Amino acid sequence: MVTRMKESRQPAASAQGEEAEAKNGAVPIHEQLKAYVRQCIKTGEWKPGDLISSEHALARQFGVARMTVARAFRDLANAGVLTRVQGTGTFVSTPRHESTIAEIRSIDEDVTQRGRRYTAKVLSLDSSTDQSALTALQRASGFVYHSRIVHCEDDVPIQYEDRYVNPQHFPQYLSQNFTQQTPGSYMLHIAPFQQIEYRISAQLPNAPMRRRLMMEPGEPCLVHWQRAWIDGQIASVVHFWHPAARFEFSGRAAYR
């Protein structure tokens, strides 16, 4: 069975448009195709094990070169999203079962599930060419997106979020209203992370951080650093600062 893409949801494309789009800053066509495939899988239109359309068929359907579709398929196969079987076709990969499961929930969900009122203050949301920001995302040049947000429970700050984002994966990041949803929730909806590295440490905040979090001198913070990948590239690097007296980490692990 071959699953067909719906015309209403196809990515914008032209036979010779990818190079021009790259020059004017638009999202490359192969990245649009990857996002489209992920969305079809996320909505259940394509299920694990389904055989999807061939490179030739998708190239004809969307008016792009076959090599553009092949590049998108190759990236998704490398990321474990698709499985390519020579002589048969390309399938939606079956999810792998890990030996342990760890979850850190979004701060807004955590607050509302406790019956409290969640609010957020966006301190800054812009692009950055700072060398430290580029280095964090392993980009040689260009720019990245940068957001700084204070998350509150019943108007009391419980988390300061300082995040750098790769614009290649989230081109509309700066147009989002992060008082209505957290950056993490937004990004997971657009392009779920495939790998996350994190560490948690105790640190004493400086004076500006204490003011943001309404803390007394000498109070420690729990600092959660996180780096996330999509298709082998660093998509986001973030530091979360939490007043230790108002916040704790907890989790649950499942073993086979």
Q: Can you put this structure into words, describing what you see?
A:
A hairpin with a 3-residue loop joins strand 3 and strand 4 (89-92). The chain contains 8 helices and 10 strands. The protein folds into 2 domains: 2-92, Orthogonal Bundle (Arc Repressor Mutant, subunit A), CATH 1.10.10.10; 107-246, 3-Layer(aba) Sandwich (Chorismate lyase), CATH 3.40.1410. The strands form 3 sheets. Strands 5-6-7-10-9-8 form a 6-stranded antiparallel sheet. A two-stranded parallel ribbon has the order 1-2. Mean pLDDT is 82; it is low at 1-9, 12-16, 18-22 and 96-103. The protein is elongated, with a radius of gyration of 21 Å. Helix 2 packs across helix 4 (66-78) and helix 3 (55-62) crosses helix 4. It has helices at 17-24, 29-42, 55-62, 66-78, 107-113, 131-136, 183-190, 207-213; strands spanning 2-3, 51-52, 82-85, 89-92, 118-128, 144-153, 156-165, 195-203, 221-230, 233-243. It has 256 residues and is of the alpha+beta class. GO terms for molecular function: DNA binding; DNA-binding transcription factor activity. InterPro entries: Bact_HTH_transcr_reg, Chorismate_lyase_/UTRA_dom_sf, Tscrpt_reg_HTH_GntR, UTRA, WH-like_DNA-bd_sf, WH_DNA-bd_sf.
